[in-house]
Amino acid sequence: MPAKARRLRTKGLLTLATAAACVAAVASVPAQAGDNPTYTNPNAPVDLRVKDLLHRMTLAEKIGQMDQISVVRMQGDCQWSGGDFTQACLKSVLVDNAAGSVLSGGGAGPAVNTPENWAKMVNAVQKYAVTNSRLHIPVLYGVDAVHGHNNVLGATVFPQEIGIGSSWDPALAQATGASTARAVAATGIDWNFAPVADIARDQRWGRYYETYGEDPLLAGTLAASSVKGIQGADGEKKVVATVKHFAGYGEPGNGHDRVPGDVSIRYLQDTLLPSYKAAIDAGAQTVMVNSGAVNGIPATGSHYLLTTVLRKQFGFQGVVVSDWQDVRALQTSYHVAADYPEAIAKAVNAGLDMAMEPYDAQGWSDGLKTAVDRGLVTQKRIDESVSRILRLKFQLGLFEHPYVDASKADGAVLGADTTLARQAADESQVLLRNDGNVLPVPASAKKIVVAGSYADDINDQVGGWTVGWQGVPDGVQEPGTTVLQGIKAAAPSGTQVVQAKTADDAVAQAKDADLTVVVVGEKAAAEGAADSPRPELSADQQALVKSLKATGKPVVTVVIAGRPLVLGDADGTQGLLMSWLPGSEGGKAVADVLFGSYNPSGRLNASWPKDIGNEPLYYQQLPGTNGGPESSYDAAYPFGAGLSYTTYDFASIKAGSASARTKDTIHLSVGVTNSGSRAGDLVVPVYVSQPSSDVLSPSRKLVAFARVHLDAGQSRTVGLDVPPSRLAVTPGDIDGTGPQTVARGDYVFTAGTRSTTVTVR
């Protein structure tokens, strides 16, 4: 969700005292509903409850259910002023316009940002809707909790998705999703706008770090695990996940956020859609639409994406919501609609159920009513969307339990699952250089210099979407452990840790140091503000690292960033650790790797460019007759790269059968050994290639992976399955638009340096 709405502030709303205590749902039933209406019966089947309630609703009430309004439109002057809830504003949004959902965009929290105050704020909204709406319908309350309950000051902040992606650990993605859901639920919120299932292939894009990486299988597997964690979290209150941003959001034409992109249908089907489908197949109950345009059509108005693909091909039956003000954008930005009612009609008829139109509840109500009056939208189509929205509310139990006990929120959120956050940060660390075994830091080291402006900066370490939309606002200090603090705490007794305050000081201190750790990176930001036309380390940081290298003493570079950065003169230090945006426990994780208490296991989920101008860069680049330098896939550090403090061998890869039919799942077994002297976790990827194919295929494509623990000297056989969908491609000529099929022929499966061939007949 973008725009000026989320530039706001951490200051938000004071709450109604009447919502402080939990009360029973649907306190009374309107006389016009009759005695004991079915929709108020918690024991009745959900479909009957939906049908009964829908039958009792007016057209205006149905239209309102399809709108999502920002919470800040109900307080102060009903604009963006903050302050107490305003009765007139609450009435306008929740009663007069019957809004079905409310959200807190980045920064739209309570005046005093604590979990308890968040719970009171949400309870207040819910209380007003349940008490004052004619049929006592609760609202859905949404928030972007994309790496923990990141809007809440003091909540445990996990690594951003790009870091979780480098763990290659589905169990970790599920665990962090569940932890996030428990925190979100404790504050009364039931709708989490996560995970991001987009893939990232252009390092310039500002939302690169919000994805799980560049590979469709890896991203889809982790997004699916996150969905299972969010929706399967234990606790009395349920939270639903959102697969976003459907579809093709990570393909902006010039690398800038929300710029229209043009892709072939083959690329869309074979590369961009699979990650969303995996997350939807995991049971996601809501989907958020791509704000951008694909092939000349805004996704919000695309019947092909929202109905043909999502509903008919994928079988999705849940709620589809737009991103921030995107329905209005069909008129104001894309100019595919002459006026707002026509824009609404395009979106609703395309398959949208709910519009995140946070500015103007009255405008939405009037606009959709006008569209109905003009014959642009049928009431039957509205009933479809409202039925889905109501079904979700019943499934969440909101009619029975719309409130939470706010007094329990602080205990449930503050300091929760910090051990898991440290594990997540540990697993996300990717060691890319370790020349001369400079790491782990030897016990004999007497002096360690820590340099760089990001060494002691927790706010940039956690990244965007933390407390505020663009990251932690000025004047607010996010709790957590910085890299400097982590190193100081982990350094053995007798080792001096010195923080260099300036570049000159760093060079001077390094001359008699055993090791210099220089922490470099980029400033926290989000969406368009995070776009980087030149995704490289800044000149001053390159100069600092170059000067430190010139001292002749060992240097380890730690990168705190949301994307691979061209290092320039900073490349070539003895050690290089990609820490990504590791969250509130990130400083401890960096120290864990530096001092060897954790054996690094992260592997790159994104290709690292050698130089500026190689964007987009991804390992599945197709072959061609090109011959210029770096015109083929030529990364500084390729997809899947990562070092360990032990050694591993891939002993074999075998297929269950040398041949298979096009509809068969191929069963593989990979023999691996930890040939080193310490235990560690090994990522076992299997790639496929085709010696020849009618449609261009990359030199390798990830088709299966696992993460396994191996003790020193231990050997294991890892079983992996490759379903036919992972081999399927869109056949035909340049205009190929048919269904995906598995081509007949030879497929070479590779693990490490070992390979085996399966012939598909």
UniProtKB/TrEMBL annotation:
Domain of life of the organism encoding this protein: Bacteria
Keywords of the record: Glycosidase, Hydrolase, Signal
Coiled coil region boundaries: none
UniProt keyword Kinase, yes or no: no
UniProt enzyme class: hydrolase
Catalytic activities: Hydrolysis of terminal, non-reducing beta-D-glucosyl residues with release of beta-D-glucose
Domain annotation Fibronectin type III-like: ranges: 682-755
Matching Pfam families: Fn3-like, Glyco_hydro_3, Glyco_hydro_3_C
Annotated signal sequence range: 1-33
E.C. number(s) listed in UniProt: 3.2.1.21
GO molecular function, one term: hydrolase activity
Family: Belongs to the glycosyl hydrolase 3 family.
Protein name (Swiss-Prot/TrEMBL): beta-glucosidase
The species this protein was found in: Actinacidiphila acidipaludis
Taxonomic lineage: Bacteria, Bacillati, Actinomycetota, Actinomycetes, Kitasatosporales
